[in-house]
Amino acid sequence: MKMCGRGITTTLAILSFFFSPAYAYDLNPLQDICVAINDSKASVLVNGKVCKDPKLANADDFFASGLNVSGNAVPQFGFAVNIVDVNNMPGLNTLGISIVRADLEPQGLVPLHTHPRASELITILEGTIYAGFLAPDAANVFKSRLFSKIMNPGDVFVIPQGLIHFQYNVGHKNATLLASFNSQNPGVVMIPSSIFASDPPILDDVLAKDFQLDKKVIKELRKKFS
Ligand SMILES: *[C@@H]1O[C@H](CO)[C@@H](O)[C@H](O)[C@H]1NC(C)=O
Ligand SMILES: *[C@@H]1O[C@H](CO)[C@@H](O)[C@H](O)[C@H]1NC(C)=O
Ligand SMILES: *[C@@H]1O[C@H](CO)[C@@H](O)[C@H](O)[C@H]1NC(C)=O
């Protein structure tokens, strides 16, 4: 019996050596989609950005400014965002890091969203933010667990990669935060608008069943997000 158990353990160890994901792992994608193409003239990116000849690189490639002010405003939700990633700071290419400044008015919300390619480390600079993420419940996929904090200046919170999260200003004055990402291009999926303002739209029947709502309500929601 004992030998048999040891034999199985050894076999499992050998199998796991050869079939472990660590030995057969695709690289993380660096962008949302990258469809293979034969025609080099019609191609744009090679999983990230094409590299500049290092001899031509200069200090400006590794520099960005403008995080001293708030960025593009999203009035519907009362927040503004200022992004420094590989798309506007080319020196970030292949480095796996980027940063964002977000400003929220009182009751301003960065709506439920995910970053498919990065964890997010939030640092509050000013104001009071209620931030949280949803971790799936391993025992029941139809449930999740909320991890949340009320945060003040100097507080740091981490959102694990890919999980749904939000930031909401619960204070009486504007709030500012910096978010660092372990990706040059974290990506963002805004949950409500992705669902209700997709182009082309998802069939009403699907969303009505998804949210257990009347189709009339689905149409109302579409209007709000379009
Ligand atoms: C790409 O090129 C290969 C080799 O020339 C060819 O066999 C294949 O059909 C091409 N694929 C497409 C999608 O054009
Ligand atoms: C923010 O920084 C930029 C670039 O350094 C500068 O031109 C601008 O005057 C600054 N704005 C404020 C409000 O400090
Ligand atoms: C708060 O933010 C709003 C929107 O960005 C801006 O219009 C307003 O001037 C800010 N208020 C203060 C006190 O900075």
UniProtKB/TrEMBL annotation:
Signal peptide start and end residues: 1-24
Binding-site residues for Mn(2+), renumbered to this chain: 113, 115, 120, 165
Cysteine-cysteine disulfides: 34-51
One MF term in the entry's GO annotations: manganese ion binding
InterPro entries: Cupin_1, Germin, Germin_Mn-BS, RmlC-like_jellyroll, RmlC_Cupin_sf
UniProt KW Metal-binding keyword: yes
Pfam (any one): Cupin_1
Nucleotide-binding among keywords: no
Alphabetized Gene3D superfamilies for the sequence: Jelly Rolls (2.60.120.10)
Residues that hold oxalate according to the record: 115, 120
Keywords for this protein: Apoplast, Disulfide bond, Manganese, Metal-binding, Secreted, Signal
Domain of life: Eukaryota
Family: Belongs to the germin family.
The protein, known as: Germin-like protein
Organism from which the protein derives: Capsicum annuum
